[in-house]
Structures are given as structure tokens and as C-alpha cells.
Amino acid sequence: MRKILVALIGVWTCAIGLMLIAFSSASVNARQPPSEACVAVSKQEYDSADRQMLLRTRFSMYARTGQLGRRSYWYCHPHSSMSSWIAESDRPATGRV
């Protein structure tokens, strides 16, 4: 009986330790927006904008970051550095966005 109690206490201690390690590293891996002008949005909002072909407009854009299964979705407001996100081939001939 005493061996079982010691084993259960050991398993309990390991489980608590693993949970503490997992939760402490989660804040280190927090998602950072692609720019200061971006705010987090839901996947549903991003998908809705995609269906309506509004991922990139003249005034704003949506961004998706991260790897498959760990995506983050962002809505980016007008910002002076926004023109640097637009590829050279997408810019008008005048060079203005």
C-alpha cells in the first residue's frame, strides 16, 4: 500500500511539473502581429473577407501568419509602412498605392 501511495505522489508531482512547464512556455510563444497597425481577428472573419475578396483593399488588408494548424489572423489598418507589404508587381505604374 505504501509503494502505491509513493508512486501516485510521484506521478502527481510529474504531472503538475509538466503542466507548469507547458503553460510557462506558452507566453513565450505568443503570436506577434505583422505590424503595429494590426489587430487579431477570428478565422471566421478572415474567411468571410476571403470569400468577399476583401483580403487586400485600398484602405486595409488581412494577414495570416503561422504554420498549418497554428495560424493567426490579423486585420491591418492603414499605416505608412503598409505600402512595403504590397509586392512590386501589385503597385500601379505611378508608384503610388
Report on the architecture of this protein.
The chain has 97 residues and is of the alpha+beta class. The chain has two domains: 1-30; 32-97, no CATH class. It contains two helices and three strands; from the N terminus they run αβαββ. The protein has a three-stranded antiparallel β-sheet with strand order 1-3-2. A hairpin with a 6-residue loop joins strand 2 and strand 3. The protein is rod-shaped and about 70 Å long. The N and C termini lie far apart (75 Å). Residues 87-97 have low confidence and may be disordered.
Offer a few descriptive terms.
97 residues; alpha+beta; 2 domains; three-stranded antiparallel β-sheet; 37% helix; rod-shaped; disordered C terminus
Helices and strands in order, then pairings?
Layout: H1 2-28, E1 38-41, H2 43-51, E2 61-65, E3 72-76
Antiparallel strand pairs: 1-3, 2-3
Number of strands: 3
Low-pLDDT residue intervals, each spanning 5 or more residues:
87-97
Rg, Cα atoms, Å: 23 Å
Amount of helix? 25-40%
Number of domains: 2
Main sheet record: 3 strands, antiparallel
Q: Provide the residue-averaged pLDDT.
A: 75
Number of helices: 2
Cross-sheet strand order for the largest sheet:
1-3-2
**What is the structural class?**
alpha+beta
Quaternary assembly:
single chain
Q: What separation lies between the terminal Cα atoms?
A: 75 Å
Question: What shape does the CA trace take?
Answer: rod-shaped
Quick summary of this structure?
By secondary structure, the chain is α+β, with helices and mostly antiparallel strands. It has helices at residues 2-28, 43-51, and strands spanning 38-41, 61-65, 72-76. Strands 1-3-2 form a 3-stranded antiparallel beta sheet.
